[in-house]
Amino acid sequence: MAKDEVPRKELQGTLDLLVLKTLAHTGSLHGYGIVLHIQHASEELLRVEEGSLYPALHRMEQSGWISSEWALTETNRKAKYYRLTAAGRRQLALSEESFDQLVRGVRAVLRFA
Amino acid sequence: MAFFRRIVNLFRRSRIDREIDAELQSHIALRTDDNLAAGMSAEEARRNALLRFGNPTATKERVAAVDTSLAFGSLWRNVRFALRQLRRSPGFAVTAILALALGIGPNVAIFSIIWATFLAPLPYPHADQLVVVWTHYKGERNPTRADDYAQYAAQTHSFQRLDFESWLVLHLTNPDHSEDDAGGLQVSPGFQTKTIGVRMALGRDFLPDEGLPGKDHEVVLTHRLWQERYHSDPEIIGKFILIHDEPYMVVGVLQAGSADRTGVPFVTPLILTPGAHTPHFGNVVGRLKPGITLTQAQAELSVIDRRIALQRNSGSDANSWSVSVEPLKNDWLDHKLQRNLWLLLAAVGLVLLIACANVANLLLVRGTSRRQELALRSALGATRGQIFIQLLTESLTLALVGGAIGIGMGWGIMKLAMTLLPDLAKQSAEAVVELNIPVLCFAVGVTLLAGVLFGCAPGMQALRLNLSDTLKQGSRSTGGRGRTPMQSVLVTVEVTLALILLSGAGMALHSFWNLSYIDLGFAADHILTARLQPRNTTPQGGAPTFPPPDQIVVQQHQLIDHMRAVPGVADVALATGIPMHGYNSFPFSVAGQPLDRSHPPVADLEAVTPSYFSTFRIRLVRGRFLNEADRIGAPLTVVVNETFAHRYLSNADPLTQRLVMQRIEPGNNNNAQQVEYQIVGVFHNVLDNEHLTGTPQPEMYISLWQAGWPYVAFAVRTAVDPVAIVGGLRGAIASADSGTAIQDLEMMQQVVDDQRTGDRFEMVLFGGFAGVALLLAAVGIYGVMAFAVAQRTHEIGVRMALGARQGEVVALIVRGGMRLALVGIGIGLAGAFGLGRLMHSTLYGVESADAPSLAAVAALLLAVAALACWLPARRAAAIDPTQALRNE
Questions:
Q1: I want to staple B732 with a disulfide (CB 3.0 to 4.6 A). Which of B368, B502, B562, B812 is the partner?
Q2: What is the per-residue pLDDT across B67-118, written as a single tens digit (0 to 9) for each?
Q3: Residue B160: CB partners within 8 Å, gap ≥ 6?
Q4: Cβ(B359)–Cβ(B426) below 8 Å
């Protein structure tokens, strides 16, 4: 693992948030695209472990946060595209808020420490 | 919905697998494309893509695992975990499983009897269409007149078939030429196979015209008669058997089953034509047309019945008659027995509750020692819900293992109960008591209910668990009273329920005790009785004729001589009636006293031989018994019982009184002359009532040697086992008069014992279940106290280090436990009073608040509770203070 990458463990709880946010941003995207997007958007700080992305996608789909359909990529390959549902949008709002709180809390502590 | 989708996914595994596969492959392909675009060689690009992705198979499994863990996976994991937990603490597991089996077994047994007796649909096709048409007279059920039936059948449109069955005592000659009087059933042709739906084992049912004069000598045998008397002769169809000395052709044999259990050996046909009068009474059974309701059928029959009643009774009495259509079911069971069965079901319900309380307690104790584990789990991220579900799964696993053993135990109890209650099978012909699907469903339902009941206790305890406290405390004991309030409540409930059950058993025992010591007024052991039926006296159609009385007396003397000669016979008596077979109400007057003609005094009149008194060992109170000198020509004499003397002769010396009554003459009921009988003795009351608990009736015994009455019963006192001389007696009776048939051969002791069957059933089962309850309650108290002592080891060590003596420590512990027991007993006594009111009508000589049995069971329970407290208390007192403190 590269030094400048945030350790995987820290990422676990926020993976859902990142995926939801990505889909909210891009509208519809396949798994590989999500990996790339997170990597780019985080200025290469965050790297999603590809093995854990798909279980997470499947779980979110089963929970009704995202829906999926098969479509062709611009390079003419078949891929499964994911899209946010209304429930997913609600979930995103909740996750963003709690993440904000976490960040604010940690920041506050860091200032004092 | 989501849960449903996950489950569906589990079953669509292969399709989902393919889809995941495709998605992962597409991911790798996209990455490879990008790598190629970045300038890698084709091989390198693919290798890099695969490397970055990791093991695709593992990923696929992890995706699939999402479904499994979301649905069943967790359940299965919990069950496996539960089984592992049980294996790890076998002592706990065995105790809990045994307690549950003891709680569930009796429920299965009693429910199987109740199901078969009250609830099960009759084992006939479309049993819901089968109805009984009851005639009611002044609101009471009454058999129906055959004439009425014929009119119903001719006029109704509600029934597919409407049939008539009537009972008739007929003489049956067996293949070995012995004769029995058998209760035969006469039915309208087609009743068995077409209306009820019974199948024939051999041959056929009656044809529609069989039963008309000239075609009525056909018979259908029950399977049992065919098996027992005709050795299952496969060639029986077309053969003739003798009924009432007339040949009847066997046309069919019914299939084994309900017909056998009614005790009717054979069926003959009966056709009733409207208009032609027949004297029969019987039951009307019908099969409704599809779609016709009971109410519709009843409305139609009521109109028809009203018309008939008006024709017949041209007046006021017509209003007393009514008709009802009711479903055919087992509702002719003895009321007391019905009540007992429901009471027993309630009792076993209580046993199960106690068992549940017990297991809940064990689980709570274990839950305390598992606090660490649960706290750790929740620290590692298990939600409260998950922990609750896991604990509930453990409880249900425990319940199912206990339930499986309980079902086996229930089968055993059921078999035992059936041997205690042989009459049950006879009384309800359709009832087949067995472990069938409905009973098993009940057992599983009860098991799951029990699992949830006791499983909630540790679950709730775990929900209240304070994480940081528990982890902080480490293994240190919690101090305080050493038991949770929930445990105290459970123990109190156990004691309460156990006391209620014990009181039920105590009252049943008390009642049975009373019954066993009822004064019969005679010695029932070694006595064989039967009625004798002189055959020639009832030619069909004509009036019976009799030889003159002195000739009858001579014949009866000869009969006695023949019977006395049988080896093993000690004494022989003949009489018009035998004890415990009912009484009559014969009008009489006391000579010299004014007679109220509208309400003459009545008493039971029997004619007996002088040997009657010695045979039954009746006790003399005053004067003398009848003897051989009281014969035809001698002054007429009578002896009366104490009740008679008390009721009718209270202000005179009975031995100076004479009774005036009609002379009994066979065939002459109305115009016999009034004669006077001198009272020569008073004897101690002999129970004449069919019921052990019946009130004594006034009785008058006159000498059979002065009466010359042809219809008699005999009683034989034997020096050996009565069964052994039956053959000899039959021979002796046949040699005295070959035309005499023997009816209702009985062992007197058996008659008495049969009377107590229901009470013995109630007592043994109630007693057994109460014993189980007592055991469970004792284990419950012991468990909680032992646990409390273990928890308080440190505290006790401190107390003893500070100078507390052993006796004080024991008292401390015992006091704590006995407080719970006393509260439980107090509440239980109130419950016992309620149970007493429910049971009162089934008990004999027992008050609804039966002080002796209540005191006894309360004392018993208290003693057991004290023992259960004392054992752990003694262990507490043996604690070495230094050791206990070092444990810290």
A1: B562
A2: 665 555 566 777 787 788 778 777 788 888 888 999 999 999 989 888 887 7
A3: B129, B195, B286, B287, B288, B289
A4: no
How far is the C-alpha of B814 from the C-alpha of B822, rounded, in Å? 12
Residue B113: CB atoms within 10 Å? 22
Which amino acid does the sequence have at B880?
A: D
What pairing do the DSSP bridges indicate for beta strands B246-254 and B218-221? Answer: parallel
CA dist B399 → B64, B396, B402, B776 (Å): 32, 5, 5, 16
Pairing of strands B159-173, B218-221: unpaired
Give pLDDT tens digits for B490-523. Answer: 888 889 998 998 998 888 888 888 888 888 999 9
Cβ contact B650:B743 at 8 Å: no
Quote the Cα angle for B255-B260-B262, to 5°. Answer: 135
Q: What are phi and psi of B426, to 5 degrees?
A: -70, -35
Which value, in Å, is the radius of gyration of the alpha carbons in chain A?
15
The angle formed by the CA atoms of residues A34, B69 and B389, to the nearest 5 degrees, is 135
A6 touches chain B (CB under 8 A): no
Strands B179-187 and B266-269: parallel
Selection from B17, B20, B26, B24 nearest residue B55 by Cα: B24
The CA distance from B776 to B95, in Å, is 10
How many Å lie between the alpha carbon of A73 and the closest alpha carbon of chain B?
9
- Tell me the angle at which helices B56-70 and B13-37 cross, rounded to the nearest 10 degrees: 140
Per the CB < 8 A criterion, the answer to whether B434 and B116 are in contact is yes
Q: Collapsing DSSP states into helix, strand and coil, what is residue B247?
A: strand
CA angle B871, B821, B866 (to 5 degrees): 30
pLDDT digit string, tens, across residues B333-349: 667 777 888 888 988 99
Q: Average pLDDT over chain B, rounded to whole?
A: 82
B276-321 pLDDT, tens per residue?
Answer: 777 778 888 899 999 888 899 989 988 888 888 777 765 556 677 7
Report the relative pairing of strands B281-288 and B130-137 from DSSP bridges: antiparallel
What are the tokens at B411? 């089968």
Number of A/B CB contacts below 8 angstroms equals 67
Torsion angle of the four alpha carbons B459, B464, B467, B472, in this order, in degrees rounded to the nearest 10: -110
| Chain A residues touching B65 at Cβ < 8 A | 55
User: CA Rg, chain B, in Å?
Assistant: 39
| Token pair in block for residue B604 | 């039971």
B74: distance to nearest CA of chain A, Å? 15
In this structure, what token pair is assigned to residue B765? Answer: 């089962």
Q: What is the mean pLDDT of residues B444-466?
A: 80
Q: B719, B525 in Cβ contact below 8 A?
A: no
Contact: B58, A75; criterion CB under 8 Å: no
What 8-state DSSP symbol labels residue B869? Answer: H
* Residue at B80: amino acid letter: R
Q: Check B27 against A50: CB less than 8 A apart.
A: yes
ipTM: 0.81
Q: Which residues of B touch A75 (CB under 8 A)?
A: 30, 33
Residues B513-550: pLDDT tens digits? 888 888 899 999 999 999 887 765 454 555 667 788 88
Residue identified by tokens 């445990």 is B487
Q: Is A88 on the interface with B (CB under 8 A)?
A: no
Q: Which amino acid is at B778?
A: A
| A3 interfaces chain B, CB cutoff of 8 Å | no
Q: How far apart are CA B50 and CA B31, in angstroms?
A: 9
Confidence of residue B472 (pLDDT cuts 50, 70, 90): low
- Burial-class residue B203 by CB neighbours within 10 Å (0-12, 13-18, 19+): middle
- CB–CB of B726/B528 below 8 Å? yes
Alpha-carbon distance of B758 to B844, in angstroms, equals: 12
